Automatic annotation (TrEMBL):
PANTHER family: 5'-DEOXYNUCLEOTIDASE HDDC2. Transmembrane segments: none annotated. It comes from the Bacteria. One of its GO terms (molecular function) is 5'-deoxynucleotidase activity. Pfam families: YfbR-like. This is 5'-deoxynucleotidase. Keywords: Hydrolase. Residues 29-153 form the HD/PDEase domain. Its EC number is 3.1.3.89.
């Protein structure tokens, strides 16, 4: 087998750890896009497990987790665009177009044999609707948990964001999210000692 040409694709992804989220706000706890992507993947996997094993829906938790891992992959090039930038419909459309174009360019950095497999994870348009809904819910859940953590540290900068995201979760409440919040949500407010004691 011939040695393939050098590809910078995964080196780009590794730089997600240098891209800060919530850039327009004062943060008590810094968060980067790599950390966020990992948390969204874990939460999406949990929601998919709940969907399959509690609610009896035909869904693959592993596929959902992989898509969640790559849901912000284009931010390796674009950086994290703050939410206020995306408020207007025109800006949302422009942002979506930019992310789509960047995604296509990033895929071209891969050896041709690997492009289809990564594209199915990165290209939101290829995601089955049921999986896309869970990834989006996990993304919102991750943002809400971040806001809650900031508020616990006394950072009122995140009050409005917490209210907006909570309203978004409530207005589009999935049974998977309700189950997660009821079963796992209260533990997020515990200290390490309380967690270790199983309180």
């Amino acid at each position: 087998m011939a040695t393939p040409p050098v590809s910078p694709f995964y080196a780009h992804l590794s730089r997600l750890r240098f891209i800060k989220r919530w850039g327009l706000m004062r943060n008590a706890i810094e968060e980067d896009v790599a950390q966020h992507s990992w948390e969204v993947a874990v939460l999406a996997h949990a929601l998919a497990l709940i969907a399959r094993d509690v609610l009896g829906k035909p869904i693959d938790p592993n596929a959902v987790a992989v898509r969640a891992l790559f849901h912000d992959a284009t931010e390796a090039i674009t950086g994290d665009l703050p939410t206020p930038v995306k408020y207007s419909p025109a800006m949302r459309q422009a942002t979506a177009h930019l992310e789509e174009q960047v995604g296509h360019e990033m895929l071209k950095l891969l050896p041709p044999a690997l492009q289809p497999g990564v594209q199915s994870a990165m290209d939101h348009a290829q995601w089955p609707e049921a999986e896309a809904v869970l990834v989006k819910a996990a993304d919102n859940l991750s943002a809400w948990l971040k806001c809650r953590a900031e508020l616990r540290y006394g950072n009122r900068e995140f009050e409005q964001a917490a209210q907006q995201i909570e309203r978004k979760l409530r207005d589009h409440m999935l049974p998977e999210v309700r189950y997660f919040l009821d079963t796992f949500g209260p533990a997020y407010d515990l200290t390490l000692d309380s967690l270790m004691r199983g309180e």
